[in-house]
Amino acid sequence: MATRPFRFKQFSIHQDQAPFKVGTDGALLGAWAAVQNEHRILDIGTGTGLIALMLKQRAPKAQVVALEYQKEAADQARINFEESPWDIGLVEQDLQSFIPQSNFDRIVCNPPYFKPSTLSDNKGKNLSRQNLSLDLDDLFRFADQHLSASGQLSMVIPKDRENDYRKWMDQFNFHPLREWSMHPTPVHEVKRMLLTCGRVAQETEVKSFILESEGRHHYSLEVKELLRDFYLFL
Fold it and tell me: Environment class of residue 61 by beta-carbon count within 10 Å: exposed (0-12), middle (13-18) or buried (19+)?
């Protein structure tokens, strides 16, 4: 029996065949990445299509392209896009061989975040969670070639990948623009970082925030404000 879709305020996410389900990391990135003036936006590794749909809701006039290498995930994203109110382009291809017709103003990615280790029995999860098909150097190399002159790259990564992020950012001459550090609770150290870098240097917006301020699923005011236009219970 098919599982019920995850319903948002303006769209739904079917995820019964997806290697990974709707998660807070992706939802935060989709709500946080700035898209006010973008004409072309790329979501790399779209999975269920959640981030692409959130970006399209926020920037309905922009052209949003979703890139997905895994067939199961691409099939799931296609269903979710077709049932949504918007037109989103889906490209079923790996990043390394993807050559877009024109550059993007914003590239967004929730990249694989575990370095290769013991593999699970689920190939889709392995590809999504570990650096088997995409790593940060691939992401920066693609962004260097296919971002517009004022384009920006936004992602969410674990805190322990911060040094890798900064290494590749420096190597490709990108500049830090926004850096939000997420504490899971008021008493926990930073676990995730929402990051944006770009070609044009400007003062970096640095901020720390708490995900759950008063227990499980009791989101902080900052998180509620980010997700208010999407989650039904906010």
Answer: exposed
Q: Tens digit of pLDDT for each residue in 176-214?
A: 999 999 999 999 999 999 999 999 999 999 999 999 998
Q: Give the residue among 29, 71, 21 at the shortest CA–CA distance from 48.
A: 21
Contact, 48 vs 79, CB < 8 A?
no
Please provide residue 204's backbone torsions phi and psi, each rounded to the nearest 5 degrees.
-80, 130
**210: which 2 tokens?**
């708490």
SS3 state of residue 94: coil
* Six-digit token string for 4: 């019920």
Q: How many angstroms separate the CA atoms of 66 and 15, rounded? A: 16
Two tokens at 16? 């019964």
- DSSP 8-state class, residue 231: B
